[in-house]
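Reading is simple: the token line describes the chain's fold. The lines below illustrate.

. . .
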Amino acid sequence: MQRPAPAPRARGRWTRLLVDVSPLLLLLIGRASLADHYHVPSGSMEPTLQVKDHIVVDKRAYGLRVPLTHLWLTESEPQRGDVILFDSPVDGRVMVKRLVGLPGDRIAFDGESLLLNGERIPQQLTPDGARLEFLPGALHALHPETDQGPPLSEVEVPARNYLVLGDHRGNSADSRYWGFVPRENLLGRAVAVVYSQREGLSAGERWWLPLLPEEGTSLDPRLTR
């Protein structure tokens, strides 16, 4: 016996519900898979990222994932020096650090300087007191304090894993404490600080601080303050 078709009024209610819910579903999928923003909770990345900075995250940078999962549909390789967001391998919390070691790299840290494949990465103090690190392909600022420990004995980064450090190395729980970040834990690459409340900036300077300089340009001085 053929079942009766739904009443027009019932179909109309379902149609309205789908119309109302669709934008929310698209927003959730977009934030999970394409782009999102993040509120910096700690000072482990100072001076590059300050507490309460709002950053925009490109979630397509390392490939496309099934929304709300760690299953990758496509993959793109991270670059040394990227500021990355990832799920902590310890407790699953979202963390933000700088990627300094790629698969196959030999990394050590003596409490002040980073050693990459046996070569010491140079640092420089600027006249205004900023400390810069010349990580290959990713010039960036470090916290200016001299003691940036604890140290790290040389390790080789395994396949599909990455080694991360905070830019404020004396105040950062990172790979020195809990090891490598598996590729499956990556969430995206931080592109820029959308808005910052850090001291010393005018109202107009607080907006859009790019985290890596464009090719042929210098580091944004706002990121060293």
